UniProtKB/TrEMBL annotation:
InterPro entries hit by this protein: Bulb-type_lectin_dom, Bulb-type_lectin_dom_sf, Pan_app, S_locus_glycoprot_dom, SLSG/EP1
Name of the featured protein: Uncharacterized protein
SMART domains cross-referenced by the UniProt entry: B_lectin, PAN_AP
Species, as recorded: Salix purpurea
Signal peptide range: 1-22
Domain Bulb-type lectin: 23-147
Function, in words: Involved in sporophytic self-incompatibility system (the inability of flowering plants to achieve self-fertilization).
Pfam families from the UniProt entry: B_lectin, PAN_2, S_locus_glycop
Transmembrane annotation, as ranges: 439-460
GO biological process, one term: recognition of pollen
Alphabetized UniProt keyword annotations: Disulfide bond, Glycoprotein, Membrane, Signal, Transmembrane, Transmembrane helix
Top-level taxon of the source organism: Eukaryota
Apple domain location: 338-417
Length: 486
């Protein structure tokens, strides 16, 4: 009779785990091992152990799509500490989510410091959006969304917190069969203006434009009647990006693949495969700093991808002719003097350079003046915001890196010598000049003489009287200072 009750107890105990796991919950005293899984409430995601390399098996705890036949793992708990043998996943004696190997050694832990009163009151839960959480009652103490692997899921946030320094970024797998951290990572840079980076061994590999304020993008899919939305939030201490789809049944994921590309993928049931909707980087100019400092990358260039900025020329023409654009440096045609002869050349539709400095919200006039007063300032940009009248002022000091022209970007004002500007300005570019002192204007007018006055009068009647242009410059050159107009 005793043996009968023992077998009955074991049978009941073993049936409790699958029932609990089917609700996506792991409670105190429960665990999973081997081929057992935890399934989210609506069955969207599964959590369990997996191994990819049969020659030297290593075991990981991961999350994957439960309703898709292909096991596409979207998160790995112990990617930095794979187990040599199958273990268990449970709540530890300290209340944390833990992975134990066959010897009962802790391989991985959620590593949350809990009060003694909370240790026996925590539960783990796999949510329907793919987020694994550790919580007490309704309070979330830890979540996998704060510790991404290589996949960015809808509802997840990537970015960083300026106060705590916490960063959420993707890290690629080593290769398709090894989930250990690879050489590429993706996230939002923590210095300068907010922008996306792909890093290769912590060095920039690709970079987006600079964002001035919170924005949202929507794009319609040509394959299915739904849209996907990308939102960049720059408010408060949290700077992050998130995305979603208008149709809940659309299965989307953003993955940083081992070769360094970011892909937006859509699951197609009819083909039983993932379709790539978008990849980055995919063109020459999308890779970081393909051209030397003070040059821009032309995405439409068939052979000559790089061009020195107006007012600059190759330091060694032979290297430039050999298309050695990264080693062939562009140098100024005329040196700056940091005086009244310095001005700004306006370049339109530019991807702004790397290493920007945000000076805060101010007027366009003040933004230009701040750059002029600093002899080390080589360029500025004024970005409009949706939060009031003033816009954000960005300055650059030293080399201008990673510029792209014909870009859906912003206006960039680069600092050049006045005479250099007059000689090199293009029709598509505009120039703003430092405000000239009235005494200098008077002395110059007297020295020019009667002939100069008469010429100036006719020029004023013909050009400035109609256009309000700055008299001594061609009509396509512009100054924001109306009090200096003729």
């Amino acid at each position: 009779m005793g043996l009968f009750f023992l077998l009955l107890f074991l049978s009941i105990s073993s049936s409790l785990l699958p029932f609990c796991a089917s609700q996506g919950i792991i409670a105190p005293g429960k665990y999973i091992s081997a081929n057992q899984t935890i399934i989210s409430a609506s069955g969207n995601f599964a959590l369990g152990f997996f191994s990819l390399r049969n020659s030297t098996p290593r075991y990981y705890l991961g999350i994957w799509y439960n309703k898709i036949q292909k096991k596409n793992v979207v998160w790995v708990a112990n990617r930095e500490s794979p187990a040599d043998s199958l273990g268990t996943f449970a709540l530890g004696v300290d209340g944390n989510l833990v992975i134990l190997d066959a010897t009962r050694k802790t391989v991985w832990s959620s590593n949350v410091k809990l009060a003694d009163s909370a240790i026996n009151k925590t539960t783990g839960m796999l949510m329907d959006n793919g987020n694994l959480v550790l919580r007490r009652d309704e309070a979330i103490l830890w979540q996998s969304f704060d510790h991404p692997s290589d996949t960015f899921l809808p509802g997840m946030r990537l970015g960083y917190n300026r106060k705590t320094g916490q960063r959420r970024q993707l890290t690629s797998w080593t290769d398709a069969e090894d989930p250990q951290p690879g050489m590429f990572s993706f996230g939002i840079g923590t210095t300068g203006g907010p922008q996306f980076y792909i890093w290769r061994d912590n060095d920039p590999y690709s970079r987006s434009d600079v964002y001035s304020n919170s924005v949202s993008y929507a794009k319609l899919s040509k394959l299915r009647p739904f849209a996907y939305y990308l939102t960049i939030n720059l408010k408060g201490d949290d700077i992050y990006v998130t995305y979603s789809a208008s149709e809940n049944s659309a299965i989307l994921r953003v993955t940083l693949v081992p070769d360094g590309r970011i892909e937006l993928l859509l699951w197609q049931e009819i083909n039983n495969d993932w379709l790539s909707l978008w990849q980055w980087p995919s063109t020459y100019c999308e890779f970081y700093a393909q051209c030397s400092p003070f040059s821009s990358c032309d995405p439409k260039g068939s052979q000559d991808h790089c061009k020195c900025l107006p007012g600059f020329q190759p330091k060694v023409q032979q290297e430039w002719d050999m298309r050695n654009w990264t080693g062939g440096t562009c140098v100024r045609q005329k040196a700056l003097r940091c005086d009244k002869d310095d001005g700004f050349l306006k370049l339109v539709n530019m991807k702004l350079p790397d290493h920007s400095y945000i000076l805060g919200n101010m007027s366009a006039h003040d933004c230009e003046s701040r750059c002029l007063r600093n002899c080390s300032c080589t360029a500025y940009a004024y970005l409009n915001t949706s939060e009031g009248i003033s816009g954000k002022c960005l300055n650059w000091y030293g080399d201008l890196m990673d510029l792209v022209q014909d870009f859906v970007g912003s206006d960039l004002y680069i600092r050049l010598h006045d005479r250099d500007l007059v000689e090199n300005v293009k029709k598509s570019a505009k120039f703003t000049r430092k405000k000239t002192h009235p005494i200098i204007i008077a002395v110059a007018a007297v020295s020019i003489g009667l002939l100069g006055v008469l010429c100036g009068y006719f020029i004023w009647r013909k050009s400035c009287g109609k256009q309000g242009s700055f008299c001594i410059f061609p009509s396509h050159i512009h100054t924001p200072y109306k009090d200096n107009a003729c």
